[in-house]
Design brief:
By secondary structure, the protein is an alpha/beta fold. It has a single domain, classed as Maf protein (Alpha-Beta Complex), CATH 3.90.950. It contains 5 helices and 6 strands, in the order βαβαβαβββαα. It binds inosinic acid (IMP). Inosinic acid binds next to strand 3 and helix 3.
Amino acid sequence: MKILFATGNPGKLKEVKRRFEREGIEVEQLDAPYPEIQSDSLREVVEHGLKWLGQQHPGKAIMIDDSGLFIDALNGFPGVFSAYALKSMGCAGILKLLDGVENRGAIFQCCAGFVDSGGKIRTASGVVEGEIIYEERGSEGFGYDPIFKPTGHDLTFAEMPLDEKNKISHRGKAFSQLASMIK
Ligand code: IMP
């Protein structure tokens, strides 16, 4: 079985490919943009994107992922604006916003979705709790990984091997659920 993963993010592709290897499912990148509606629900963004992709590529099995970092002290920011915030201010900008802030709690959320060759849509969600540390650490992963340390772990996501991150991450959880639905 082969599934296309519509993403332009090589980091997400690597993680999802590795997760599905375990299931014996081949994942191939579909590097084609799809419309991302503005919504505070990741699931709505995913469902809308999948509907569109299903119509554009009939007969294909396609997955997508919408995720974000929600920081407690910033009332959930950057949240659904995570991609924009990363581009405009980066991890350094987030650390600056949290300068002097003691409450470092944050969560990563991911909604993973799948449209099958018949147009049926399924979604699954994953969350990981953690904290924003005080400096960037590590060179693995992507995005906000260097500043996010999951609860109960000493390493940031950017200091963990990919398989370790996949075991506990928002994306790992969401795609594990999706894999069980697909199989
Ligand atoms: P989107 O899902 O492509 O809209 O991405 C949201 C933003 O959050 C992007 O800038 C990603 O780099 C970032 N992001 C999503 N998942 C992760 C992750 O697992 N680690 C670090 N950053 C992430």
